[in-house]
């Protein structure tokens, strides 16, 4: 319903999968995203109303649109239905088929949150124009509920590292870009330093632009320490 910014049944799964598949016209997508946020935050109070396909699509969509704040809200729940409920409420150590703990425990139905720890909190994202991590994206979700992250991924070119900590509103972020590869790096804020010096003039770094609250750099292989 274009006039209401809704899609099919207006639940999390329908809204997320429509946006994920880029079905709605571009001019309607912001309103549909707003409806999805309302479904997560207001109607479900941070809880899930998705199943196997919808959960994956929603988490991947929110990660790639930099709405890690919404994923962090979902991840922090410990009441039904949530992953926290399965762990704390039911004491499970394998993911069940159903949010109430029922069904099979040997199929990957609710087991879709793991990628977010790498792609969301760690911010290690593939660049689809350069398959195989020849060039990749580093854009962590610096969410308020997390003080530090240590994350690494073994790419075909070597280990990618993304370690950060947040203290008193300032972020220190140490990264490693493997040999023969490069990365586009998103650092929140401006006046960014690398190794204690102006990041825009640091060796191996090229300032691209300031956009959506971030200083964006193209970084060659090497180790860097950013601070905002």
Overview of this protein structure:
- With 228 residues, the protein is α+β, with helices and mostly antiparallel strands.
- The chain has two domains: 12-114, no CATH class; 120-227, Maltose phosphorylase, domain 3.
- 26% of the residues lie in helices and 30% in strands.
- It contains six helices and nine strands; from the N terminus they run H-H-H-H-H-H-E-E-E-E-E-E-E-E-E.
- The chain has helices at residues 12-20, 29-43, 52-64, 68-75, 83-89, 114-121; strands at residues 124-126, 135-138, 148-155, 158-167, 170-188, 193-194, 197-198, 205-211, 214-227.
- Strands 1, 2, 3, 4, 5, 6, 7, 8 and 9 form a nine-stranded mixed β-sheet that branches.
- The longest helix is centred in the N-terminal third of the chain and has 15 residues, at 29-43.
- The protein is globular and about 55 Å long.
- The model has no long low-confidence stretch (mean pLDDT 93).
């Amino acid at each position: 319903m274009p006039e209401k910014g809704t899609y099919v049944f207006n639940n999390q799964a329908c809204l997320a999968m429509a946006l994920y598949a880029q079905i709605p016209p571009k001019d309607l997508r912001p309103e549909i995203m707003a409806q999805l946020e309302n479904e997560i935050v207001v109607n479900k109070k941070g809880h899930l109303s998705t199943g196997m396909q919808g959960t994956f699509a929603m988490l991947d969509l929110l990660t790639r649109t930099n709405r890690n704040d919404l994923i962090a809200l979902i991840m922090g729940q410990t009441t039904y239905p949530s992953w926290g409920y399965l762990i704390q409420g039911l004491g499970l150590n394998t993911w069940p088929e159903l949010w109430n703990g029922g069904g099979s425990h040997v199929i990957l139905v609710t087991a879709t949150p793991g990628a977010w720890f790498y792609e969301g909190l760690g911010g290690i994202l593939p660049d689809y124009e350069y398959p195989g991590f020849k060039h990749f994206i580093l854009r962590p979700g610096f969410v308020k509920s997390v003080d530090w992250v240590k994350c690494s991924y073994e790419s075909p070119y070597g280990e990618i590292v993304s370690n950060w900590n947040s203290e008193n509103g300032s972020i220190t972020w140490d990264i490693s870009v493997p040999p023969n590869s490069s990365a586009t790096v998103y650092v929140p804020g401006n006046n960014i330093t690398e190794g204690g010096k102006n990041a825009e003039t640091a060796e191996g770094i090229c300032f691209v632009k300031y956009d959506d609250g971030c200083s964006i750099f193209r970084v060659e292989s090497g180790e860097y320490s950013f601070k905002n």
